[in-house]
């Protein structure tokens, strides 16, 4: 899933990441957990702006 961020160098919301991760072979139910793990390990940044969480 980390490759999504490296390939595009873009900013995503969770909904967009779920769609892209499924295409990469990640199970939909585990996307949020994997993403949180990447954020916890400082491999992906997360910022809450308004009511949305953005990841890059």
UniProtKB/TrEMBL annotation:
<dbReference type="Pfam" id="PF03962">
    <property type="entry name" value="Mnd1"/>
</dbReference>
<feature type="domain" description="Mnd1 HTH">
    <location>
        <begin position="1"/>
        <end position="56"/>
    </location>
</feature>
<dbReference type="InterPro" id="IPR040453">
    <property type="entry name" value="Mnd1_HTH"/>
</dbReference>
<protein>
    <submittedName>
        <fullName>Meiotic nuclear divisions protein 1</fullName>
    </submittedName>
</protein>
């Amino acid at each position: 899933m980390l490759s999504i961020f490296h390939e595009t160098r873009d900013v995503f919301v969770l909904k967009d990441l779920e769609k892209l991760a499924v295409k990469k072979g990640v199970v939909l139910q585990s996307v949020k957990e994997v993403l949180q793990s990447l954020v916890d390990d400082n491999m992906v940044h997360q910022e809450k702006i308004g009511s949305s969480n953005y990841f890059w």
